[in-house]
Design goal:
eight-stranded antiparallel β-sheet; alpha+beta; ten-stranded antiparallel β-sheet; globular
């Protein structure tokens, strides 16, 4: 069969090409013979690659990326040397105002002590014009229209005092011979913003120029698209003290801001210098911003004037700084400049537009993009891996591309030199500095015109006394960041943050994947928990290095500004609360979204859907959602149905809904360019698409439908229009039971550079794609989520949207999954570290495809993956259309029973999962936690990523190797632990009074067992009735599992609402049960209930939330009697002396009423 299929490959590929890419309304799918229609599903597995390694030739390395190559390993260090100009320092009382459109201007008007602001300071703050009216972008001194959050407390001028600067270099390399390199001053604005929770924001931007030059308007930033403005509250002015012994700065401090004598100020500065191990510096080289409420926590931000560095301390200890920014001389900011100059430019006053110069904007590249890689063949389509499909039925083969070895520190040798006579100095400069690709950059067949030239920014961050850094998701690597620089680096390439559709990604790599969050978290016994959020959505590379007991990260971004948020912690709970206030909180999902999801590319038709659904029903196998991939549409036209395969979609959804099930359909961002397709027709007429690099034509890229256009989701009117498309009268065949899956939203463009968009494409505001690339997927996700809310009257039904791509803040819009994994043990093993990495980035609602997307899984692997998936926040099985069917019953009855048992554990724990998700939204703490998040004082747990916690109370160790019957677990000795199956306490050797150690223990993990343990000191609610969906469980009674701690105490919460609507927010329709047990105080269990709105949470609701069983573990001796305090009536119970477990059955209590059971010993 295989040999026959391979022999037929050309003709079969021609047919598939026809089916996937060329069918239109003129050649409807139903007109093609059935035997032909069956071929893609029956025969493609014989010749389509399923387990190939990633095609590395499609994706750039640092060495192939101009800005990374220029700045990595300090190669450009000699071009940048920044000094804070003391005379420019301004202190502002406007810290307690929140900046919206005119917040910074408000800060200007509120300046204390320093007199009227100079013209420079007004430009520095980018505020109002001299007449008090906000200036507009595009005029000299125009404010940043996107700036949000607390106004700056401190502003100053930052000047590059290097003898030879970046602008001088480019003038010499690219200039017309009439430039005056010495006249190219590089001046920046420095602003510090302080938040009431201790967060410090350090923001560096260009000084704007008058006229119409390259710096006449602020760079595009995305505060209003990402930041959680409502919770970004400024530190009160009276709680900030600014200290300096520099006379020029002291004059700027009003008397009530000084607060200290010179001797006291010197003492503070000396103390901080000592803590930072700074010796060879004068005290007048520092400014200290000390802030925090009187009698509360305090923080110190110490600015070193020259060379510019920022030291971030906690004020309540005497340890080293948490974070130091600007170390290593690696700060760089490539200010915008003209490519060529003439007439002996003085003082940077050349304000002509780029178009006035001979600037290469890439037009020539359109006519000359190198050799024809297709050999003259006609291209009729592209696959997801970016390879072409030809009209003769053949397919482009991968090309092996040799890349230069990555630079490990030494400067590059000479690069291409611009033609013509080159003087000796230019030659020497270019031998040391890399000036290649600054105004035009090629990769493969694609040319980036880069009309604004080099615009990169970068900064090194040092985390003193910390060797454990986490974050920078998403990468297929360990949760803890490994070194990429230094003598003993683990990886050669830096971590890359650039959202891409990486077909068949490899493991243990720093390559970019589908989404990214530029957050680094440090965990250390010496400095506690601290975070650094590099707020920049452009392509970014990050090097990680360990030096002398400390860790360093070097951020290098292609464009944007330096916008750094420093999060002081001091522990994980505090830091994640701070991060939630910055980027937003995760909303509570509908409970069905926490159940099991069954997906495949593709369930073929309604008969297939009904068959799958009926088998789940027949086998009493719980599931909540059935998914449809792209083949359900009419020719990949989203918001439509294939009328032959799915003639009655509304009836189909209602039938499944009658059993408590929902459905999900896929809706991707690429829009088929078909004028008869109503979505495309309307979007075109309204002008909603991303434009080409000239801004004239709609961008045309290739994806699943073939020729496609892409909506500009950076624009509010486009997001609103997209949300409207989900209205039931527009999305025909949709019902309230239908939800959405957003895929391919990196965005994926099969024929684009790196399978994505060209960076010089323009949004509707003429801003280049490079500036907002990493935001695209999140904004698409956001707009879809808003559409699902708006489609229902009153907007009162919670949405569910799954997205593949993401950025910081995506937690506000729905779930994320790790993309196209493989049916291999290695991919099961990496799933926990990847998901933990996403949780480090505050994305909690995450999962990996159970069973692996590509390839075929066997029974053991499927069993272990289903067991692991039951304990990950998003729980979905999914498979490629060429993979064998793998619904739970496809492996035989014995395996089905095991898979069902795993799913049942998930459903039994839904009350706990729902409560943990509620707590995550409330506190910011992740749902799926690394061990150090719960035990930050146990260093042995910092690097562990093969076991984790769900909430604070369930320890999970997935089995990820074939044939395993035993697993090693590190148990924190801070708490005791109970096996959730046997209910027995785990016997651990060690001192229970030791709080900073963990003990390794081998535990049973045969094929029917996944090691899961409940923390002693916790109370976990479950529902034990076997139901086929979460909807059918709503009125089921609770069983409370009480695990007594070493002190014979336990506590826990149960959150209850209607599980579907926003009434818990809009009408306070919720209840919180707080359980407490204290055996030493004769309290078996006590419940204290808080009801949000008792008019809604009435007696009917209360009486429907019954506790039918209470299980208490770790009871040392059998009590004589247990009584209910309200009427002193005895309660029946059973005690097992071997397991030391008490079971109380049918106590006749409601989880939403106060009660107390007490002991009679």
């Amino acid at each position: 069969m295989v040999s026959t299929s391979l022999a037929l490959m050309p003709s079969l590929l021609s047919i598939i090409t026809l089916l996937f890419f060329t069918i239109d309304d003129a050649t409807p799918l139903r007109s093609i013979p059935t035997c032909i229609l069956a071929l893609p599903f029956a025969a493609t597995s014989s010749f389509l690659p399923l387990a190939m390694a990633v095609d590395r030739s499609k994706f750039r390395t640092c060495q192939q990326t101009s800005f990374c190559r220029r700045h990595r390993h300090g190669k450009s260090r000699r071009l940048y040397d920044y000094r804070v100009v003391g005379e420019s320092v301004q202190i502002h009382r406007g810290g307690d105002s929140v900046a919206a459109d005119d917040g910074v201007a408000t800060a200007i008007e509120s300046v204390g002590g320093g007199g009227l602001l100079s013209k420079f300071s007004r430009r520095l703050l980018q505020g109002k014009g001299g007449d008090g009216v906000p200036t507009t972008a595009g005029t000299g001194g125009g404010r940043d229209p996107h700036l949000r959050g607390p106004s700056p407390v401190f502003t100053a001028k930052l000047v590059n005092v290097a003898p030879f600067t970046s602008t001088a270099l480019t003038a010499r390399a690219y200039g017309d011979g009439k430039c005056n390199p010495g006249a190219f001053a590089e001046e920046l604005n420095l602003a510090v913003h302080l938040h009431e929770d201790g967060v410090a924001r350090v923001r560096i931007t260009e000084v704007l120029e008058d006229g119409a030059g390259p710096r006449s308007a602020p760079r595009w930033t995305s505060d209003e698209l990402v930041l959680n403005e409502k919770e970004m509250v400024a530190m009160k002015g009276e709680d900030v003290q600014v200290m300096s012994i520099d006379p020029s700065i002291q004059r700027k401090l009003s008397p009530d801001w000084e607060g200290f004598s010179n001797e006291a100020v010197e003492g503070v500065i000396s103390s901080l210098m000592k803590r930072a191990n700074i010796e060879a510096q004068s005290k007048d080289n520092f400014i200290v911003l000390s802030y925090g409420p009187a009698g509360g926590k305090r923080w110190h931000l110490m600015l070193q004037l020259y060379p510019f560095e920022v030291y971030f301390f906690r004020g309540n200890d005497d340890g080293p700084p948490m974070i130091v920014a600007g170390t290593g001389g690696l700060t760089h900011f490539e200010i915008r400049r003209n490519k060529k100059c003439s007439g002996g430019v003085e003082g940077g006053g050349d304000t002509r537009k780029l178009s006035d110069f001979d600037v290469d904007v890439g037009d020539e590249a359109d006519d000359d993009e190198g050799e024809d890689r297709h050999g003259g063949k006609e291209v009729v389509g592209y696959w997801e891996d970016g390879l072409a499909i030809y009209a003769d039925g053949t397919r482009e083969e991968r090309r092996e591309v040799e890349t230069a070895p990555t630079d490990d520190g030494a400067p590059d040798v000479a690069v291409d030199v611009v033609g013509g006579e080159v003087d000796e100095q230019r030659r020497l400069d270019e031998e040391y500095f890399d000036t290649k690709d600054m105004w035009e950059e090629k990769f493969g067949d694609h040319t980036d015109s880069k009309p604004h030239g080099p615009m990169s920014v970068g900064l090194e961050l040092t985390f003193p006394a910390s060797l454990h850094l986490f974050g920078l998701p998403e990468h297929a690597s360990s949760t803890q960041l490994k070194t990429t620089a230094g003598s003993d680096h683990y990886y050669t390439e830096p971590y890359r943050l650039y959202n891409l559709d990486v077909f068949e990604y490899e493991l243990d790599e720093t390559m970019a994947l589908y989404g990214h969050i530029p957050l680094v978290v440090s965990q250390s016994m010496h400095t506690g928990t601290a975070g650094a959020f590099w707020f920049n959505p452009t392509e970014t590379f990050v090097d990680v290095e360990e030096v002398a007991g400390s860790s360093k990260t070097h951020f290098m971004s292609e464009s944007g500004i330096v916008d750094l948020f420093l999060l002081p912690g001091p522990d994980p709970a505090a830091m994640y609360e701070q991060y939630a206030r910055l980027t937003g909180r995760m909303p509570l999902p509908p409970i069905f979204a926490l159940g099991y999801h069954q997906c495949r590319w593709n369930y073929r038709d309604e008969a297939d859907v009904y068959h799958v659904h009926s088998k789940f029903e027949e086998l009493d196998y719980p599931y909540d959602v059935l998914w449809l991939d792209i083949e359900h549409t009419d020719g990949k036209r989203y918001f439509t149905w294939d009328n032959k395969a799915f003639p009655n979609p509304t009836e189909m959804q209602k039938k499944l809904g009658g059993h408590g099930r929902r459905m999900v359909t896929i809706i991707d961002p690429h829009i088929k360019r078909d004028i008869n397709y109503y979505i495309h027709k309307e979007a075109t007429s309204l002008g909603l698409y991303i434009k080409d690099k000239h801004g004239d034509q709609d961008f045309d890229g290739w994806c699943w439908p073939g020729s496609s256009s892409y909506l500009d989701f950076t624009t509010e009117k486009v997001r609103n229009w997209w949300a409207e498309q989900f209205q039931y009268n527009k999305y025909k065949g949709s019902t309230p039971e239908l939800f959405t899956w957003n895929d391919m939203n990196e965005p994926s463009v099969f024929n684009g550079p790196e399978v994505s968009m060209q960076k010089d494409l323009l949004n509707l505001n003429k801003c280049e794609h490079r500036e907002w690339h990493n935001l695209y997927g999140m904004l698409f996700h956001r707009s879809t989520s808003e559409g699902l809310i708006k489609r229902n009257e009153g907007g009162n039904v919670r949405p569910f949207v799954l997205s593949r791509s993401f950025f910081a803040g995506s937690q506000r819009y729905g779930a994320i999954w790790t993309g196209d994994n493989e049916a291999k043990w290695s991919h099961l093993e990496i799933s926990a570290p990847m998901l933990l990495g996403l949780n480090v980035g505050a994305l909690s609602f995450v999962g990996a495809d159970v069973g692996g997307f590509f390839g075929n899984t066997d029974a053991e692997l499927m069993t272990r993956w289903m067991q692991a998936g039951a304990y990950q926040p998003f729980f979905r099985g999914h498979a490629h259309h060429d993979a064998k069917r793998r619904e739970p019953w496809m492996f035989g009855d014995e395996v089905m029973v095991r898979l069902r048992a795993a799913a049942m554990t998930r459903y039994a724990l839904l009350p706990y999962w729902y409560t943990v998700f509620w707590q995550a939204g409330l506190t910011g703490m992740p749902v799926m936690r690394t061990m150090w998040m719960q035990y930050p004082k146990i260093p042995d747990l910092y690097s562990i990523d093969d076991q984790y916690l769900i909430g604070s109370d369930l320890l999970v160790k997935p089995v990820t190797t074939a044939g395993a019957t035993e697993s090693e677990i590190l148990f924190p000795l801070t708490d005791c632990w109970y096996d959730v199956d046997t209910l027995k306490r785990v016997e651990l050797t060690g001192d229970v009074n030791t709080t900073n150690t963990a003990v390794s223990l081998a535990v049973d993990s045969d094929i029917d067992k996944i090691p899961v343990y409940q923390r002693g000191g916790s109370v976990i609610p479950r529902k034990l009735r076997l139901r086929r969906s979460s909807h059918l469980m709503v009125n089921d009674p609770y069983t409370l599992y009480v695990a007594l701690g070493n002190d014979l105490k336990a506590e826990g919460k149960l959150y209850i609402d209607d599980e579907t609507t926003f009434d818990h927010e809009k009408r306070q329709a919720f209840g919180i049960a707080s359980f407490h047990s204290s055996w030493g105080d004769n309290i078996v269990i006590q419940n204290s209930v808080y009801i949000g709105n008792s008019d809604i949470v009435d007696d009917k609701v209360v009486n429907g939330r019954i506790v039918e069983r209470i299980v208490v573990m770790g009871v040392p001796t059998k009590p004589r009697e247990i009584r209910l305090k309200s009427d002193d009536s005895p309660i029946e119970f059973q005690y097992d002396g071997e397991s030391k477990v008490i079971v109380i059955r049918k106590p006749g209590l409601s989880a939403l009423e106060d009660f107390s059971l007490y002991l009679m010993k």
